[in-house]
Specification:
four-stranded antiparallel beta sheet, ABC transporter transmembrane region fold, transmembrane helix, ABC_transporter-like_CS, ATP binding, transmembrane, alpha/beta, 2 domains, ATP-binding, 64% helix, six-stranded mixed beta sheet, elongated
Amino acid sequence: MFAVFKKLDWFFKHYWKRYLFAIIALIIASAIGLIPPKLAGYTIDHIQFDTLTSKLLIALILGYLILIVVHYAISFLWDYTLFGGAVILERWTRSKLMSHFLSMTPTFFGKYRTGDLMARSTNDLKAISLTAGFGVLTLVDSSVFMLMIIAMMGFTISWNLTLAALIPLPVMAIVMNKYGAAIHSRFTKAQEAFGEMNNDVLESIRGVRVIRAFVQEKQDAKRFENMTNEVYEKNIEVAKIDALFEPTMKILVGLSYTIGLGYGAMLVFENQMTLGDLVTFNVYLGMLIWPMFAVGELINILQRGNASLDRVNETLDYKADIREARDPFYVNQVSNIEFKDVSFAYPTSSIDQLSHISLHVKQGQTIGVVGKTGAGKTTLFKLLLRQYPGVKGEIKISDVDLHQLSLDQIRSWIGYVPQDQIMFSKSIRENIQFGKGNATDKEIFRVMELAHFLNDIKQLPNGLDTQVGESGVTLSGGQKQRVALARAFIKEPEILILDDSLSAVDGKTESKIIDHLRQVRKSKTTFIAAHRLSAVTHADHIIVLEDGKIAEEGTHEQLLNNNGWYKEQYIQQQLEDGEVE
């Protein structure tokens, strides 16, 4: 049950002073809280024996007031310190998760779905934070505070009465242990169901246009209803166990009260204790209700926290497939790029997506990469970005193996525009500045001209300050592509990768963008993957991929003379363009 505290020992060791202060202050506040019942019993005895004077009464009232003020001040200190520590743990863990997500490769995101990761970053962190705050409180109250009350009842009143009143405690311990095991299992399943529901909501929101286009609103709503019912049922299973805690505690506490009142009254009649002692004892017995409840709350919180911590740790323990070199080389500039007999298969596949790829690229060259859908164009770029392990052969930049270079340096050289453009829910200015944080409006307008986006920005309601919406929903496909291009251009990367990034623009716009690229990137390397061959006709070297292998390569003119797939595709596209015209 206490395994969660052991798993969090790294945090408690770091903030041991904070938690030690909070626990000591909590114990002092609890000790002060034990004094008023004794004063009440003392006052009752004086009233009973008619020995209460006005001077004594004033002293007792002043004593109460002083205790209230001191108790309030110390309670504020332990509450602020203890629950402040819980908030720090939540912040730390959330930061660790975010850093972990940013260092992960596509393999990780293939294993864990987005909605589940969101659940682990929200609900599970709340449960862990509750353990480090309320969990510590219930631990102290259900152990130290309970023992303090029992000691006061036994040493200052009657051990016989105290032991008799505590007979229900062992029963409570057995029952609570069984409840705790059930809570852990059911809460884990409930959190998993919540993660699945998150995934479903996320997919529905992202695909709302497709859902509407295919008139699937009712079916999607029905599917969501089924998932929410599943989450509801699993949470109801947790609630059923939760609901048993309080009634069980009330029955056991009621038994303790019954024993205390019955046996205590008999002791008063036999003159073995005073009426004031009986009143004090019953006040202490009332104070014992919370520590008894705290036992149940402690088990509940610890089991929830343990289940959530296991889920979070499972995520954090996932090792990145791509790791930094121990002693990375530093390279000043990208003088050449070389693929030497490179073969690669995805971790989930037994078939090579790339096979024996050899390519030498000099600085300043433009490389065209073409081929049928699924030929391996995107995979080739992912290897250059070091997104996957298990590469056979060698990939070198400036004659240094890619594995010996720092990941930050590799990616700082590269401006990547993928097939699926990612737009952040910010303004167009902020989306472009993602490539260069301190970019001025002048620089932004320059790259928008390169991306042929100036006319579009004039038509948008707020210009650069236009909000693009969730995933760029307010922009057309072509506009998103050109904003993504501008974002890559403003970075002025040594290596620019355009992965079918001109597919949503018309032929004239594509031609203008390509012309701009040729002018500004004469001394820098560019890779262009495209299905429309007009995008690569100007390239210094073109490779044609087929089933992961280089089927043809050369310049545009050389490939036309080969009478292969490239020439056939080029002629067919020219004819189609002619028909359009």
